[in-house]
Amino acid sequence: MSRMLRITNQDATHSLKLEGSVSGPWVEELQKTWSAISGAVKTGRVTVDLAAVSFVDDRGRQLLLHMQKAGALLKEASPFLQQVLDLEAEKNIQAIQKRKRK
Fold first, then answer.
1. How many domains, in total, are found in the chain?
2. Residue ranges making up the domain that contains 10
3. Helices 79-101 and 58-69, packing angle to 10 deg
4. What are 49-89's pLDDT values in tens digits?
5. What is the CATH number of the domain that holds 46?
6. Which residues in 1-102 belong to E strands, given as ranges?
């Protein structure tokens, strides 16, 4: 079964709407779209609507976290997806704190 991802680029509002699975080859497609829109936005921030995302693999999660770190506002994530993203962010914070202690 092939999982699909629909990416809707709403230029006027500097936002992306994701629908489906952020996994496999679709991660690269999202990366390309993110690079294009984030490079074009001179003021404000890019908003990423995650309400219709049904699955995220590890590469997809890493890309979403990278986008967030670069200034994207991730919104409307399901409770499960929000927890996955928050847990990953927490692990990154703990790793940084551990390195600072050394």
1. 1
2. 5-101
3. 70
4. 999 999 999 999 999 999 988 888 899 998 888 888 886 66
5. 3.30.750.24
6. 5-10, 15-22, 47-56, 73-75
